[in-house]
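hiii, so i know i said id send this last week but things got crazy w the move. better late than never?? heres the sequnce for the chain we talked about at the cafe, plus the structure i predicted for it. fair warning i was half asleep when i ran it
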Amino acid sequence: MNIFLKRNIGWITVAILAVVPILRWFFVGPLNFRFIDLNATATSLGQIIGLLGMILFSINLILSSRLKIIDKYFDGLPDVYSIHHKIGAISFCLLLAHPLFLVVKFFSFSIKSAVMFFVPQGDAVSFGIYALALMIALMVLTFYIKLKYHIWKFSHKFMVLVFVFAILHNLFITSDISRDLFLRYYIFTFAFVALILGFYQAFLSKIFNRHLEYNVMSVVKLNENVLQIGLEAKDRELKFIPGQFVFIRFLGEGVSSESHPFTISSIPEDGKLEFNIKFLGDFTSQLKNLKEGDRAMISKPYGKFSYKEFKAKEQIWIAGGIGVTPFLSMARSLPKNSSQKIDLYYCIKNEKEIILKNELDLLSQQKSNFNIYYWMSEGKDFITANNILELSSGVISKEIFLCGPVSFMESLRLQFVKLGVKNNNIHWEKFSF
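okay and structure toks below
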């Protein structure tokens, strides 16, 4: 599979799945009647928008299920969640616009008729109104009210209820879905799969997911902002590739038991897991309360951000602050006599922010093809693609890996593209859930 197709297979798949019911809609009834006047045209557009919104809503719930096959099929779970956020926004706008187009025909009777369209009457339309009202409330909470993570996560579970109302609306209302067998099976197959997966992820995953149990072995403060946590398997060990991440639930006093994603810094051969975590919010600040012997439940590994996924002889790794964590695992796993030439740029504000410098320097000495450059921005400019071009003697034919703050990665990505680097050769960890 070519690189472009591999990296965009998610969007391509979503586009194909979304357009199928729209194409079918055009063959269900005579088009000359569907667009005969303003009222008919508005109603038809409302139906198309509703179909598209419903199928994207279903796809969105499926994408949020964290199925391993989705992680493999798309360009890693961070990319899946990036698509999930965008599709969620699109489907919300479509489902919001759906009744606005349908209400147009009621204005020909009276404004009161149009207003009453949005008042629940105990019929099939009412389920759609309930779904829309609850979805608007959840979107307001998401975008305009800064909730603590565990509260936001709990409120997000109500999206399953929104979806139930949306299914009931489509199930009982007289529409093209009720009249056409293909549309009915297509929409409801996706809807019921999405409902099962969404309900499972929201309410049952903690109970039935097969997590591996680890014990906290060490908790070490590396500097003022970074904590290193070492874990040891109680029974079965996790199998992963360098650069991947897991979802962890810590079961210790003074630490929330919510699941959070963290990148693994250790290597598979160690038999132990190491995480280097920056204090970024309420949850990460709680981790200093962990004690030796506390339990940790580890999910299966996710992500494709790994040098092992690409066989290029020369690679450039660029870390912004705590974005060094996947590169620690990669650097540790590099064979001593690797044929791949790796340049790691570790970008921090000053020397105090560097973690595990002695080990990184030792790895650079032991592995002839692994070079490390510390770029400290205090007192000088931030690193640029031109700086890297000069220090690494070229960038065009190399695979480039970026991990750090989104603005940091986006800025460097654009700079590399201007230098002639193909987008397909630039890999960045969109680690934002």
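btw The first strand starts at residue 212 and ends at 221. thought thatd interest u
miss u guys!!
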